[in-house]
Amino acid sequence: MFASFDAHWRDQALAGDPQAIQELADLALRTLYSFCLYRVGNKRELCEEAVQETVLHAIDRLAEYDPQRADGDVLPWLTGLARNEIHRVLAREKGTVSLEELWASVDGELLAAYGRVNAELLSDEVLRREETRELVNATMSQLPPHYRAALECKYVEGRSVREMAELQSVSEKAAESLLSRAREAFRATFLAISRNIETQVRTSC
CATH number, domain at 110? Predict the structure, then answer.
């Protein structure tokens, strides 16, 4: 479980409390690496640079983080900083403009897709198709952490919904609802990435 990045935590971090700062760094290193890796063309050195600079900027600009507005969830703010660092490292590399444009297009689609997650059920066909491990990994890396954790708990660890509910200290109905939303988010993300890669390939031919 992630720490609560509320106003009390921010006050401690701004005061220089080592534990509060370490909680931010730990969260950033756990979640941003996979988020950044595919966005920099699977180049580990660029990914590591983007993540490290994001952590430094997050600590330096912590006063800009509004816990009340974010409802204690610091991840959207961190990923916003990470996108700026990804843009910076890609700007140095030749031939990466199309890659950045691809992910910008994916992000635009996902904003709309996530808004429909509770209202629309996307086809199971996506999950039955034979796709490469890289594309599946890229999809998982872009999911919100609570969705990714739910899918890994169910399909990687093989836990039942009852076991998931016990681990999360919630009802089985709540655990099933989270898993359903996670599956829909996976489909939406997978389709968005696939569609934009296909478009990018067509326009580059």
Answer: 1.10.10.10
